[in-house]
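Think of the structure tokens as a kind of shorthand, similar to the way a musician reads notation: each symbol stands for something richer, in this case the local conformation of the backbone. In the example below we present two proteins back to back. Begin with the first one, reading the sequence and then the tokens, and try to describe in your own words what changes along the chain.
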Amino acid sequence: MLTLFHHPMFATCRFVRLAFGEYGEELALIEEKPWMRRKEFLALNPAGTLPILLAEGDVPIVGAMVIAEYLDETRGVLKRDKRLFAEDPMGRAEIRRLTDWYLNKADSEVTRHLVRERVLKPVMPETAGGGSPDSAAIRAARANIRQHMKYTNWLAGTRQWLAGNKVTYADLAAAAALSVLDYLGEIDWREHAAAREW
């Protein structure tokens, strides 16, 4: 069985878990607190970032999109109509663009800051950056939510799925990011009916 080092509140980790779930693949989960900088964890990824997948032969595969590409190459090509990538290069490009939007842009402008300030800092030791939440960081992140929700609402209102006519990695990336924000009570779904229905 493959092993995933993850944190349940990181959108990138949720994305990987959703992708494996879509393909019906089981994962052994190890919850990691990257701020602890454990020696064993850093041996797998000196950058100290999540997610990390221990693949066949315990080879570490690092990063959400790298893991998604690995999953597609080793399992996705056999799934045919349930494959999370499009068959054509332009379709794959759009999937990659939107996946990047949610796992990088939305994460760096919104999700990461709210998770850090509201969830992680209160439980982290001060020596690792813990302490009181930074209200300015929270306000800035909240100000950025509207743009991402408007874009998601537009995508959901003009397409069958976010990147086309079927569920793809783009949908899973958006679901991962938005589920974190929804869990934190940060999304007003009343203003985004198409996104809510999607």
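Once you have a description of the first chain, move to the second and do the same.
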Amino acid sequence: MARRRWAEATGLSEAELLELLKVLRFDAGYPVPRLHAALAAQMRAIGLPAEDKDIEAGANWIARQVQAGYTELDLTAIDQAVADLWPQCHLTLRNDGQASRSPLRLDMPELDSVDSLLAFANTAITRVGRDRELLELRSFLESESAFSWWLWTGPAGAGKSRLAIELCRAVSTSWHAGFLREDQESALENIQPTRPTLVVVDYAAERSEWLSDALFRLSRRALSAPVRVLILERRADGPWWNRVQRTHRMEESFQIQACNYALQRELGGLSRPEIRKLVKVVAERAGSTLSSTNVEDIADHLEKIDPARRPLFVLVATMDWLDEKDVSTDRDAALRRLIARAEGQTAQTVTNSVNALHVRNVRTFATALGGVTADAYAQIMHTPHPPVGLLPDVYSDFHPVSLDDLLNGLRPDILGELYVLDRLATTGVEQLATGALLRLAWRADEEAYRAFVERAAGDHKDHPQLIDLLDAGDWTASPMFCARMAVNIIPLLQRSEHPTLVWIFSRLDSARQSNPMQALEEISATARFRLANLVLNEGSTDRANMLYTDALAACKPGWEVRFSILNNRGITWLKLNDRRSAMADFAAVIETASATDEVRACALNNRADVFDAEDDTDSAIADRTAVLDLAETTYNRRFIALVRRAQAWWKQGDQGRAYEDIISILAMDDIATEQKMAARLQRAEWLAEAGADSDALIDLKIVIASRRNFDGVEARSRQIVTSLQTGGPVDR
């Protein structure tokens, strides 16, 4: 009865609703009352057209499913799934009076004030450089497929969002283009485009569950006009990226990867001439004229602050130099001077100290959530126990500062993160208030807060208050989520002696003692694994090997992390010239039935590399073949197996089988174009070696014409073409 009433409220059939709920993944570690309350609040927040008893009936029904054993992910996944369900059913009326889905609304923000110079949407600072990148993105739009997606990565300040909005503005006359707000996510899944549509998804890590579902559904849709999804995030690794690619459901992952336009593209820094030009543009906008010596001084200042030459720091260095003239080379000192200037401007405009405190508190709270909507803020302020005195009412006026602007948080992110961390470093009431605001942010949206913490750890890994961000979560009520959040930042710390690691392992030990759950034990083993990876990356193979061994001792036989540890320990054994132990670790993964196909494929490829190095070609071919016989492996594992098996066939003189493997690579939809071009180059080298110059030239010209190649592939292809056309030898 409860399910039927819930289904009726959505306009879905009961069968459709049940099918959705079957694929949801829950964490049974959450107390049912808390789960019930969170779901009820979420359903009310999104305007479920039912009375309280119906809302409670739906929430209770889901809770019973949790108790019945639907257990994998955490509460955030449930919240997101419920939030995604209702907007799919919101209908509008067309002019003919017929119901239709709400249109997809995309944002194209524009700012032009001096105060917004650092904002990616600022139109006062003209674009400098990035011509090549825009050409690549236009090629993405012009590709033949009805639907495709592409991930662009880069650190904070690299200019990902600015590049995306420049693209949107450039194509806006022919494309429906812009940034996708969270309240429009379901509209994208149900889109029926009447014109080409470009959707930019920023902050993808905190939207990974929804994004994965959207990509999968779009990959299966028949679309009446092209749809492109441009995804922006710091890194293409970690849990969020696995969720997006659906590596836990490989058949669906194949469909998503088949629509991937290219391998992830990392956005780099600017050239020195581009830096000079941008310095002049910023100075002119600020009303200053610079000599050529001044420009070079600022460019030098930038490279000391930020060797990566990110565009954001060109602006920071220029504004810092214009304000101070005699400045330090400390990056955070320059950011703090900008924060101080913004705080000073706010202090001059607000009417009293209470308002000034409220402005700081709203900025802190909103920044810790990556921005918050006015509706969500109003909901927080009208909870049964609102944060009295900490935050202003939703109707408060701080003229000329608007509450809507404050709710965006302090941007750019790297500036806002430092702002929050530095507030935690204060004393007295200011410090207490900041801690309370972060705990409130955690309760308001755990997933958004986790994403903020990961960004802060990546940008400010050495800030002493980083621990306070991790401790703001409710370790008593949500030990699993808090533990995962802490363990996820370990790779971001980048060194094995980082003091935050001591706190993380101590906190994990306390959580395990208070909550004797196997899942927490596995998370703790994952923490050990990631620490060992840091040590290995530092070149300390002996110590890494010992840490992997210690981590293995803490693992249960079926834990997924155990197989990753075995694979990595095998690598350390090879570096330590202990082939026998390495092969034993790889075999332990390969021969365990409970290991996933993906980790077995990794172990098989690792073992095959050892056989190749020892000229045991038959054994290497057998292991590569075993990889290809596995049903659920990613395209990377299959590409490695195919291309290296082809090389082994060629080494044995079996040219026919070698060519067949190259053909297999070219025929696979989910293998990336860059990989296919590398395979063509390999085949062209063989053809040239065999004297089939005309056939080799066909492959080489395809590689040269491709807009997507690994570094060095096009240059090597041109070199071979020149040799073949001039009759010179083809160097190996």
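Compare your description with these statements about the second chain. The two ends are 72 Å apart (CA to CA).
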